Amino acid sequence: MTNGYTYLILAALCYASMGVFVKVLSFTLEPFTQLFLRLIVSAVLTFLLVVYSKKSFLLKRASDYWLILVMGIIGYGLHLSFYTLALYHNTIGNAFFI
Questions:
Q1: For the whole model, what pTM was predicted?
Q2: How many Cα atoms are found within 13 Å in the side-chain-facing hemisphere of 12?
Q3: Which of 21, 75, 95, 96 has the greatest number of CB atoms lying within 10 Å of its CB?
Q4: Counting beta carbons within 10 angstroms of the beta carbon of residue 84, is it exposed (0 to 12), middle (13 to 18) or buried (19 or more)?
Q5: Neighbours of 8 (CB within 10 A)
Q6: Where are the alpha helices (DSSP H) in the chain?
Q7: CB of 50 within 8 A of CB of 43?
């Protein structure tokens, strides 16, 4: 398999196991604490990927940075917030179908 397929399978496994980890941690951590920790870890990993990668990740215009930032905060942040709350208040099976 090529690296693309390997990364795709790895990403799918990480996303699929996220519900189990959220449910297990719901006994000890509040939902927004979990969300904060997950976003901090992903920001650090993304920063390391950008710094140590040989490819250029720079965008051409300054307005592109604001667009990516707004899309990340609103789109991904809200998605993870609602998903974590759904897992926190429901079973894993119900949350996957919501």
A1: 0.66
A2: 6
A3: 95
A4: buried
A5: 12
A6: 3-25, 31-52, 62-70, 78-89, 92-97
A7: no
